[in-house]
C-alpha cells in the first residue's frame, strides 16, 4: 500500500533526520513505530501523509508520490498529529466541514465513538481539554475509514481509563482493508494491538519485523536462563532482572519495552540472532 524507498530527509541545513529509509506498509496490519526522542517518527509520519517532501528517494501511496498531494491519494490517508490546533466550532460543525474530504466517512461511527469517549457533537471544541480534543481527532480519524490511518502519540494526554478505551476502540476499527501506523513512547498502550514493529535509531530503520517473527526468535522473561550464552540483553526491574534472549521455540509474551531497550543497546546482536534463526 505505502512504499518508502531510499528516502532521505533533513530540515533546511540541519543534519539528516532520516537517511536511506526503506519500508513497506501493507493492509491488514497495525504497525508500532518506535524511536527515542528526536529520531524522526513524527517527520516520517508527515512524509507518509504528504505534509513533508523527501529530499531524495520516494514515498508512494498506491504507487503515487504522497508529495504530489493529489486529492485522490490524500482522501486515502488521515494523520492524527501529536500537536494540533482545532477551530472553535461545535464538534458536529467540525464534522460537517471536514468529513466531505473523506468519501468513506461514517457519521454514525463518529457519533458512536464520541459517545464511547463521553463527548457529544454539541460540545464546543475550544472548551474541551487537550485529552478531550485528542479524543475528537482519534474518533474522527477512525471514522474517516481511510485505508491508511497514521497516529502520532495518540494516547498522550489520555487518562488511564481512556487508554483502555483507546485500545478497545482501535481493536474494533481494525479490518483487513486498513493499514494503521501508531507512533508512541507509551509502548504499554499498544499491548496486544500491533502486529508489526518498526524501530528508528540513528536516522535509520534498525528493526522492521512482524511480532510473529520476533516471538518465534526471541525469549522474554524474568527468570535467569540456564544457558547464559543465549542472553542478549538484560535490565534491572522492580521484580528482578528482565532478560531478552535467543528463542528456544518456547514462545513467550513480547515485552515491547524490553525489546525496544534491547534493540537500542544491542541491536546488531538481536538482528543477527533473528536472521540466523530465520535462515536456519
Ligand atoms: N520544523 C522543524 N524544523 C527543524 N527541525 C525540526 C523540525 N521538526 C523537527 N525537527 C527536528 O527533527 C528531528 C526529528 O524530529 P521528530 O519530531 O520527527 O522526532 P520524533 O521522533 O517524533 O521525536 P519525539 O519522540 O520527541 O516526538 C529532531 O531533531 C527535531 O529537532
UniProtKB/TrEMBL annotation:
The UniProt record lists the keyword Signal: no
InterPro entries to which the protein is assigned, alphabetical: AAA+_ATPase, ABC_transporter-like_ATP-bd, ABC_Transporter_VariousFunc, P-loop_NTPase
GO molecular function terms noted in the UniProt entry: ATP binding; ATP hydrolysis activity
Gene3D superfamilies with a match to the protein in the record: P-loop containing nucleotide triphosphate hydrolases (3.40.50.300)
Residue ranges of the TM segments: none
Segments forming domain ABC transporter: 2-227
Keyword terms, alphabetized: ATP-binding, Nucleotide-binding, Transport
UniProt-recorded name of the protein: ABC-2 type transport system ATP-binding protein
Organism taxonomic ancestry: Bacteria, Pseudomonadati, Bacteroidota, Flavobacteriia, Flavobacteriales
Amino acid at each position: 500500500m505505502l512504499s518508502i524507498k531510499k528516502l532521505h530527509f533533513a530540515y533546511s541545513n540541519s543534519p539528516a533526520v532520516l537517511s536511506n529509509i526503506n519500508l513497506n506498509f501493507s493492509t491488514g496490519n497495525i504497525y508500532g513505530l518506535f524511536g527515542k526522542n528526536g529520531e524522526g517518527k513524527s517527520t516520517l509520519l508527515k512524509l507518509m501523509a504528504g505534509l513533508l517532501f523527501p529530499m531524495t528517494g520516494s514515498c508512494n501511496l498506491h504507487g503515487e508520490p504522497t508529495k504530489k498531494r493529489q486529492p485522490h491519494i490524500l482522501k486515502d490517508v488521515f494523520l492524527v498529529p501529536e500537536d494540533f490546533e482545532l477551530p472553535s466550532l461545535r464538534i458536529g460543525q467540525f464534522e460537517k466541514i471536514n468529513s466531505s474530504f473523506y468519501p468513506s466517512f461514517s457519521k454514525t461511527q463518529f457519533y458512536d465513538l464520541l459517545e464511547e469517549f463521553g463527548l457529544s457533537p454539541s460540545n464546543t471544541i475550544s472548551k474541551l481539554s487537550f485529552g478531550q480534543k485528542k479524543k475528537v481527532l482519534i474518533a474522527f480519524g477512525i471514522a474517516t475509514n481511510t485505508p491508511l490511518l497514521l497516529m502520532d502519540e495518540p494516547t498522550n494526554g489520555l487518562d488511564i481509563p481512556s487508554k483502555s478505551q483507546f485500545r478497545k476502540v482501535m481493536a474494533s476499527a481494525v479490518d483487513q482493508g486498513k493499514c494503521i501506523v501508531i507512533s508512541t513512547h507509551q509502548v504499554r498502550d499498544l499491548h496486544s494491538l500491533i502486529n508489526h514493529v518498526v524501530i528508528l535509531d540513528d536516522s535509520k530503520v534498525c528493526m522492521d519485523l512482524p511480532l510473529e517473527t520476533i516471538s518465534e526468535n526471541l525469549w522474554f522473561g524474568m527468570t535467569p536462563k540456564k544457558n547464559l550464552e543465549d542472553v542478549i540483553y538484560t535490565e534491572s526491574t522492580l521484580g528482578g532482572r528482565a532478560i531478552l534472549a535467543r528463542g528456544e521455540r518456547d514462545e513467550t509474551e513480547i515485552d515491547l519495552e524490553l525489546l525496544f531497550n534491547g534493540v537500542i543497546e544491542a541491536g546488531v546482536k538481536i538482528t543477527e540472532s533473528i536472521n540466523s534463526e530465520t535462515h536456519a
